[in-house]
Structures are given as structure tokens and as C-alpha cells.
Design a protein that fits this description.
Elements (H helix, E strand, L loop, with lengths): L2 E4 L4 E4 L2 E3 L8 H13 L4 E3 L8 H10 L3 H4 L3 E6 L1 E2 L2 E2 L3 H15 L4 E6 L8 H13 L3 E7 L3 H10 L4 E7 L6 H7 L15 H7 L3 E5 L3 E2 L4 E2 L7 H14 L3 H10 L6 E4 L4 H8 L8 H10 L6
Parallel strand pairs: 3-4, 3-14, 4-5, 5-8, 8-9, 9-10, 10-11, 11-14
Antiparallel strand pairs: 1-2, 6-7, 12-13
Helix pairs in contact: 1-2, 1-11, 2-4, 4-5, 5-6, 9-10, 9-12, 10-11
């Protein structure tokens, strides 16, 4: 497994992360199998949130990995907070309580990276700054970031917090390319030129903020997966052609497409199928050519100016 530098050198971690949202649904044996497979594939970065399974996902993970000091030193744990039932909460009290809950469930003394899960329009950045300082000074959290934030929201928060924000987790897949489209369609009236995110891709690269791609196999918001889906015949034909050429499973091509971008984007893989995870990890063994990357982009219905 190749490594990437999170936040321009703060940590060197596996370029593919295992997202643990769904492991709360697994039996103990199945949870252990998916975690063991990840470790065997040299994945050392595990992604969580306090709301996954109502907190159960963090508990299942800690038990499945057999959390102890020796194991803890070899992995990176990221978790998120800020989503509550029916609303968002970035208050100091909620952030602190959420971290304490995650630490207990994960059976660890510290979180490597804490993200604010979604923008809270009632966010008071001074309160967030106080919470971050307390968490860092106590050793409970090493680094901080955000999820689903645009450029100006990051700028606003960065004005107040003393820590550099090193992650922005954003939705990106071959069929969800809004981050990329507006840059390709600059200076046109095409639909793809609409910038909905404040040029967040370019912004994060300028600020050395690592982008993590969530739901890399999904189309729409939560509609379903596009791979092997008859709704996307042209896209799957092209993916399969390149998979045969590269001698890897088609799932690896989906992730290789994200890894090919020079922004060094880290895909978050949410599968609970250990065989599928092994297939996906083969993405780390190949590199798409420029033409292959653009051919896949266009086969998803995107047009170049």
C-alpha cells in the first residue's frame, strides 16, 4: 500500500482509508475479518464518526482490532462530531462530550484527527477554538479538520482556531465530480462551470489540506453504487476495458481514478466485504494514464469544453 502525507507531512498514512460506518451491523467474526484484511493490506488509517451506529461502530472496531497500546501505536484513528438527531451542533460542550464518548468506545487515550462533521450555520468559531485548545492541550486530540466545508467556511474557522485544519472530507466519485467540473469548465457557460463549493479543490491544495473522498462508489447523494449498474452502461464498459488492460478488478479502477489526481486525495472505503476490500486495494498497484483518466471522466457523461 502506498503512503500519502496528510496535511503536507504531518503524518504519513495509507493512501486508502477504511471507513467504519457500517461495521456496527457486523457479527464479531465478520468485523474482525474486515479489520484484519485492512491491516493485511497495509491500511493503517481508520475513519469513524460518533453517530455511526449510534456510537456502536466505534465499540465494534475497538473490539475487532483488539485495541491495546501496541496496536494503537501502529494505526491512525479519525473520528467526527457535530451531527445530532435532527440538527447540527458545533458547541464547545458537544464537541468535548463527543470526544470523551469516542475515546471510551474506541478504548484509546487519544484521537489522531477530529473532524467537524458538517457545517453548522449556528457555529460560533470562538467556542470551537476553545474546545480544540482544551482537547489538544489535554492530549485527547492531536490534529483537527472538517468535513463538507467550503473554502470560506474553512477560512472563517481558521481565523479563530490555533490549530491548522489538515483534512476536508468531501463527496467525490466518478459520477459526483462537482469538485472537478468547475475547474475544467472555467470561462464557459456550460452547466459544469457552476462553482458550488468556492473552488474548494484548488483551495485545499493551496492550504495543504488533504481531501478525503467519501462514498467513492456512490452516484447521487445516497442513491446507490454505479459500478456494475445497468444505469451506467458506458461508464462500466470503459471501467471494465481498463480493468482488463491493467489486470485488476474493476473496483480497483474506480479508486485508481481518484488516486490519479495530483491533489493526493485519500479515498474512504466503506465496504464490509473483505474480498471486495482486497480487490479495491489493488488500486494502489496501478496508475492510470492521463488519457485513461479523461476517458473514464467522459464516459460518466462529462464533457470537455
Amino acid at each position: 500500500m502506498n503512503k500519502i502525507n496528510i496535511g503536507n507531512g504531518i503524518s504519513s498514512v495509507s493512501e486508502i482509508s477504511l471507513g467504519c460506518m457500517r461495521i456496527a451491523q457486523l457479527s464479531s467474526n465478520d468485523a474482525e475479518r474486515i479489520i484484519k484484511t485492512a491491516l493485511d493490506e497495509e491500511i493503517d488509517f481508520f475513519e469513524h464518526a460518533d453517530i455511526y451506529g449510534g456510537g456502536k461502530a466505534e465499540e465494534v472496531f475497538a473490539n475487532a482490532i483488539g485495541m491495546n497500546n501496541n496496536i494503537r501505536d501502529k494505526i491512525y484513528i479519525q473520528t467526527k462530531c457535530g451531527i445530532r438527531e435532527g440538527y447540527y451542533d458545533s458547541s464547545k460542550e458537544h464537541i468535548l462530550n463527543s470526544v470523551d464518548g469516542s475515546l471510551k468506545r474506541l478504548k484509546t487515550d487519544y484521537i489522531d484527527i477530529l473532524l467537524l462533521h458538517r457545517p453548522d450555520t449556528l457555529m460560533e468559531p470562538e467556542e470551537v477554538a476553545e474546545a480544540f485548545d482544551l482537547l489538544q492541550n489535554s492530549g485527547k486530540v492531536k490534529h483537527f479538520g472538517v468535513s463538507n466545508f467550503n473554502s470560506m467556511q474553512i477560512e472563517l474557522l481558521s481565523k479563530y482556531v490555533n490549530q491548522r485544519l489538515i483534512i476536508n472530507q468531501l463527496q467525490l466519485s466518478i459520477t459526483n465530480t462537482g469538485l472537478i467540473d468547475s475547474g475544467i469548465n472555467v470561462n464557459t457557460k456550460f452547466a459544469g462551470s457552476i462553482d458550488r463549493d468556492g473552488s474548494v479543490l484548488g483551495y485545499c491544495r493551496l492550504k495543504d489540506i488533504t481531501i478525503q473522498a467519501w462514498s467513492p462508489f456512490q452516484y447521487g447523494f445516497i442513491e446507490g453504487v454505479f459500478l456494475n449498474n445497468e444505469k451506467f452502461p458506458g461508464l462500466n464498459k470503459k471501467i471494465n476495458e481498463i480493468a482488463i488492460l491493467k489486470n485488476v478488478p474493476n473496483a480497483a479502477i474506480v479508486i485508481a481514478w481518484i488516486l490519479r489526481h495530483p491533489a493526493k486525495i485519500q479515498p474512504i472505503i466503506g465496504t464490509t466485504n473483505y474480498k471486495r476490500l482486497k480487490d479495491i486495494c489493488k488500486a494502489s498497484q496501478i496508475t492510470l494514464t492521463r488519457q485513461e483518466w479523461y476517458d473514464i471522466y467522459k464516459s460518466a457523461g462529462n464533457k470537455l469544453p
